[in-house]
Write a structure and sequence with these properties.
With about 475 residues, this protein is mainly alpha-helical. It has 14 helices and seven strands.
């Protein structure tokens, strides 16, 4: 069974027809949609025409990503800029202000056929020099001038059996939009927004820190206004959909970078010297170093696509190295010689140095062991749970502090129950997969905030209580 479609963080565009050599660029998905809308239609068109075209453009792009249309054919990109096949994308073009605001409000929505999961491949054409079995761009404008809504326009061209998904999840984060948040509101969605604001403020210090108390007071409103100002959103101090999804997008990117930085302690925080030329077919630790470099560069500079750190110098690594060499004006051969190694090292060094002030220590995340951990259990899994409960308790007060003994006693059970109650989970007092994953997520949220006060959280703390010694 296919998974529910998600909005990707980035999309890789081939700047030409699929079978012709051309540059690949990786850009944030929302910026891709803004670029295409600004390239395909006119900003002076009626609001409903622009929205209808935005939804068609978004759905088409998501269909390409979701069906893996090009990767399944051996390509290393998601979509092309060829208007004969895909959508018009112009590298580094200016974006119209009204288009940007409309896309911010709608890019997390897409069209699908009723009863289907996948986004509809919403074909479109200009409707004058080219016609097609899909939306006519100029026709949509004429309909909007006549009073048609954007849904009327979409129904007209794609049929009445379509529906609009209005709250698509964003990749790598489970926080879906919970509705408008405003001064005076309280609850878990407010606290999640506060967590994300504090994480983003680490990279953008002009955003003031807020208390993560779940109460939307004056300080939270002030932080939201500053966030909106920085990212060209409507400055009203209210967290509507556009503000929420921009906040989520930045939060995801910053957390991903932080994870890479934590991983980089294995590769970067030791003295690394150039080994020897690395090329297709090579394997081992040095290949993992290069793959780590590629991922950090991808997260910071945007022109590379993240790849697996598996220690195998395969096609993905070759293509990423070639792109790096091309962008940096080097000989493009896909081989990591001394010059390429040093240039990549310098790029990563610069990126990580920028993040040092926001970096914090995260213990290695363990995968769910495959069985429920309950009262009476002992061992590293229990100790892992206890350390996370304590950090969540310290920052959010949504669990009880417990002794980190590795024994699952009554205090640990009560702390788990408090945690499950706080996050709307089934209250069993045992840690199943859902509770395990939620605890990991909230632990990282807590760590991102606590870093502002104390960047070193010891894995073991002093035993504060005696009841859980077992």
């Amino acid at each position: 069974m296919k998974t529910i479609p998600v909005i990707p963080n980035t999309i890789t565009v081939h700047l030409g027809p699929p079978d012709k050599p051309a540059e690949n660029v990786t850009v944030p998905f929302v910026d891709y949609i803004k670029n295409v809308v600004s390239s395909e239609i006119y900003p002076t068109w009626n609001y409903d025409a622009i929205v209808a075209n935005t939804l068609a453009i978004t759905s088409f792009a998501l269909n390409r990503v979701y069906t893996e249309f090009y990767p399944s054919r051996g390509k290393n990109f998601d979509i092309t800029s060829s208007t004969a096949i895909d959508q018009k994308f112009v590298k580094d073009r200016n974006i119209f202000n009204n288009v940007s605001k409309i896309v911010d409000d709608f890019y997390y929505m897409y069209v699908r056929r009723k009863g289907n999961i996948e986004p509809l491949a919403t074909k479109f054409c200009n409707g004058t020099t080219v016609t097609c079995n899909g939306l006519s761009q100029w026709g949509s404008e004429y309909m909007a001038r006549g009073g048609s809504s954007y849904m009327d326009i979409l129904y007209s061209y794609y049929g009445r059996d379509i529906e609009l998904v209005t709250n698509a999840p964003i990749k790598d984060i489970k926080y879906s939009y919970a509705g408008v948040l405003n001064k005076g509101d309280s609850g878990l969605p407010v606290r999640r927004a506060q967590v994300m604001l504090n994480r983003v403020s680490n990279a953008y210090p002009s955003i003031p820190k807020v208390d993560t108390d779940g109460k939307y007071g004056p300080r939270t409103e002030k932080a939201v206004r500053k966030f909106q100002e920085l990212f060209n959103l409507q400055i009203d101090g209210i967290i509507g959909k556009a503000t929420w999804y921009e906040l989520v997008r930045l939060y995801v990117g910053l957390n991903r970078l932080n994870e890479l930085n934590s991983l980089g302690q294995k590769y970067f925080d030791v003295s690394l010297s150039y080994p020897e030329a690395l090329k297709f077919g090579d394997r081992g630790k040095d290949v993992k170093v290069i793959q780590y470099y590629i991922n950090v560069i991808a997260e910071n500079y945007g022109y590379l696509r993240p790849i697996s750190i598996d220690g195998i110098y395969g096609n993905d690594t070759v293509n990423a190295v070639k792109t790096f060499q091309r962008v940096n004006g080097m000989q493009v051969d896909g081989i990591v010689g001394k010059n390429t190694w040093n240039r990549m090292y310098n790029a990563v060094s610069g990126a990580i140095n920028m993040e040092r002030e926001v970096d914090y220590r995260i213990d290695t995340e363990l995968s769910y062991p495959g069985f429920v951990i309950s009262e009476g259990d002992r061992g590293d899994n229990v100790l892992y749970i206890q350390t996370r409960l304590n950090e969540v308790a310290k920052v959010f007060n949504t669990a009880f502090r417990v002794a980190e003994t590795g024994f699952f006693g009554n205090d640990t059970k009560n702390s788990v129950l408090r945690f499950q109650q706080s996050y709307g989970l089934e209250q069993t007092g045992s840690v199943d997969k859902i509770t395990w994953n939620e605890l990991n997520q909230e632990y990282y949220n807590a760590m991102s905030i606590d870093n502002n006060q104390n960047s070193q959280i010891p894995y073991r703390t002093l035993n504060l209580f005696d009841e859980d010694r077992g």
